[in-house]
Structures are given as C-alpha cells and as structure tokens.
Amino acid sequence: MAISVTELEEMRDALVRARARGAREVQYNNERVRYGSDSEMARAIADLDARIRQTTSTRPSTVRFSSSKGF
Q: Is the pTM of this model over 0.85?
C-alpha cells in the first residue's frame, strides 16, 4: 500500500512540530512513535523529505542532444 504525498507531508509536518517543541513522541492516525534522540527525529524527517521528493519529482520523457563540429 503506497502512502500518498499528502499523508507523507502531514507526517513530516507533525514530526517537525513535535521536534520544534522538544517532544520526542509523535501521534499520527492513532499511532504513537517515540524517538530516542533528536538525531533520530532528524533522520526520520530527512527520510520523509526524500520520499516526498521522490514521489513528486517528474522525470523527463525525452532527452535531446545537440552537437556541432565547432564552426
């Protein structure tokens, strides 16, 4: 089951808010997650950011090359 971009963003936002408050526990959709350290929370935020970028990035469908002999 894939997680939607909206859900990923909501999860990231909740984690960022909790980290800003100094909390180490986050509740999302009736699930509680407790992080052992601030660096663990930072890694979770970075992972969510990477997943969001991966999901929203678009790859070019066509690549065009151009070359010349230097004239």
A: no
Q: What is the pLDDT of residues 37-56, one digit of tens each?
A: 999 999 999 999 999 998 88
Tracing tokens 């909740």 back to the chain, one arrives at 14
What are the CA-CA distances from residue 56 to residues 6, 14, 53, 63 (Å)?
A: 11, 20, 5, 20
Q: Residue 48 CB: number of other CB atoms within 10 A?
A: 20
Q: How many helices (H) and strands (E) does the chain have?
A: 2, 2
Q: For helices 5-21 and 38-56, what crossing angle results, to 10°?
A: 160
Cα radius of gyration (the chain): 19
Per-domain boundaries in the chain: 5-56
Give the residue among 60, 26, 63, 58 at the shortest CA–CA distance from 45: 26
